[in-house]
Structure formats: structure tokens, C-alpha cells
Amino acid sequence: MSSSLRAKEIFLEALGMEPxxxxxxxxxxxxxxxRLESRxxxxxxxxxxxxxxxxxERQARSxxxxxxxxxxxxxx
Length: 76
Fold this sequence. Notes:
- By secondary structure, the protein is mainly α.
- The chain has one domain.
- Helix content is 83%, strand content 0%.
């Protein structure tokens, strides 16, 4: 199995875990492979940032769409 596929597999399994469980799991799943563990942690951080920002992105997109609709209708 390629390291990318292995990282994805570990990432998907770690997603549902609490942080204290995740650390132990990553240590066991990645073993001595520091690059693999680093890659999985990068994926988890990116996913976390995306999850935190998603509501704001939806709100911003909605506001921009409303602005453009109003502008197109000549209301602004």
C-alpha cells in the first residue's frame, strides 16, 4: 500500500476520535514512520481548520450572492 493511501486510511480512522485517543492511535498506527505521522497530522489540522471556517464561508458566500442579486436588480 502506498504511503498516501496509508495516510488517508489512518486519517479517516482518526477523524472520529477524541484528541487524547488520537495521539495514542497515531503512535500505534504510524509506528516509527515519522513522515507518515506528520502527513496524517497535517491532514487532521487541515480538516479541523476547514470545519471551523465552513459556517463563515457559507455566510460570506450567501452575502456576496445577495449583494450581486441586489446589484443586478438595480436595488443598490
